[in-house]
Amino acid sequence: MKKKRSMVFIVSVFLSLFFLSNNNLLAADPYVIGYLTDITGHARANYAPESEGFRVYMDLVNAKGGINGHPVKVVIEDGKSDPSKSAAVAKKLIIEDKVLAICGLGFSRSQPPVNALAKKEGVAVVSGYTGIEAVQDTKPGSIGFATGYIMHPNFHPGAYASARFLQAIKPKGSTLAITGYATPGARVWTNLTEKWVKEMGYKVVYRDDIPPRSVDLSPWINKVAKLNSDSYISIVGTALVLPQLTGLEKMGYTKDMIFPDFTPEGDLLKGIKRLIGNGEWIIWGGRYATVYDKLPEMKRISEAMKKFGHQYPLSARTCHGWTMGRLLEQALMKAGWPCSRAGLIAALEKADLDTKGLTGGPIQFTPTDHYGPTWWRAYRWNASKKALVPAMDWFKIEAKTVSNK
Q: What does the DSSP assignment read for 113-152?
């Protein structure tokens, strides 16, 4: 009987300490991080899953006791792919919420006012899928960092990667058609893609830009099908990828089509299911691994999504947001408590994050390079496996390789 009472006492003490520690965490002042994204804008299919991956990771961090004994408060705001809305939201995050950093961002045209205000106030900006700042050649203390694509005229690794994807599947001398979003960042992407493929020995027979909200794609689809180039690169997202897949197939064009991972895997699968053929002409690629890679870290993300709730299915974009969350966790741990905006920037400049297979190599920053080396890979749809399978090995891109200065 005494032994039983002793066990009850021990359990009671343990539970008391557990709830006390959690209450202390809730009572502690939080690290406040802003996340600006496109939740309801026309680019939401890509950017919203990324913000969800970030939020889920921070939920996991808080459930495990926070960072340095303090919870992380994530303030997620919707920029709606609108420059004026994004500017207002950024001001609110910086001035009212007093965030240490703003993560994410959305369409390229909505980023300038956000970056301008962040520079003025000394707030770190960690861009996700797309960023327009030239972060590969920086001065110590610069506020811009990036974990995805950079859409700058002097530095665009995604454009070079697109050309390398083509190089992996087509011989020199092949013909190519190129289209992309009619946005500032995407125009940089397609311009530099055209530059790189020509330098690699390919012939561009068609190049045009498509407004993001286009409903009738026949002017572009008809042109691509008529020219019947050996391959086709389109730098667009879900809303324009899916109708292109079906429209071009109906016109008899099923040559290799290369799309960036701007389209989440689940959406791409929906488009493939609408095809009559097997879809094995579809090439998809980017900086992050696909969910078809079935990595242990993706299983961990999936379990966290089930625990903390989610709206979007697991995708490379979710993995990107999750990785950005891990990057912020590492920096906040280094910065300690209390953490200033300048302190967080200094900590980010020492980042060295093992992405656990979600990218081909680590994310590494220095005071003069807020981007670091990156690894990229293309995948081809395999009908028998019903999956995207690697069409090439991971390859490394360094700033000196693609700088256009």
A: HHHHHHHHHT-EEEE-SEE-S-TTS--TT--EEESSEE-B
Unique residue bearing structure tokens 């979600």: 358
The DSSP symbol for 75 reads: E
CATH topology of domain 158-286+377-402: Rossmann fold (3.40.50)
Q: The tokens 């691509």 sit on which residue? A: 224
SS3 404: coil
Question: What are the pLDDT digits (tens) for 329-351?
Answer: 999 999 999 999 999 999 999 99
Locus of tokens 């001065």: 139
Q: What is the DSSP string of 293-309?
A: G--HHHHHHHHHHHHH-
C-alpha separations of 262 from 104, 258, 278, 302, 405 in Å: 14, 11, 22, 20, 27
Distance of alpha carbon 311 from alpha carbon 48, whole angstroms = 9
**Average pLDDT rounded to a whole number, residues 384-402:** 94
User: What's the rounded Cα separation, in Å, for the pair 105 and 93?
Assistant: 13
* CATH number given to 9-148+293-372: 3.40.50.2300
- Between CA 47 and CA 294, with CA 355 as vertex, the angle to 5 degrees is 80
Quick check: 136 and 203 in contact, CB under 8 A?
no
Alpha-carbon 322 to chain mean position? 10
* pLDDT for the residue 405: 58
Query: For residue 238, which amino acid is it?
Result: T
Cα dihedral 46, 50, 345, 155, rounded to 10, equals: -30
Burial of 299 (0-12, 13-18, 19+ CB in 10 A): exposed
Q: Could you give phi then psi for residue 284, rounded to 5 degrees?
A: -130, 130
3-state helix, strand, coil in the chain (%, to 5): 45, 20, 35
Tokens of 133: 């700042």
- pLDDT of 15 > 70? The answer is no
Show me where the domains of the chain are located: 9-148+293-372, 158-286+377-402
| Domain 9-148+293-372 shares a fold with domain 158-286+377-402 | yes
Residue 52: name the closest of 31, 29, 78, 80 by CA.
78
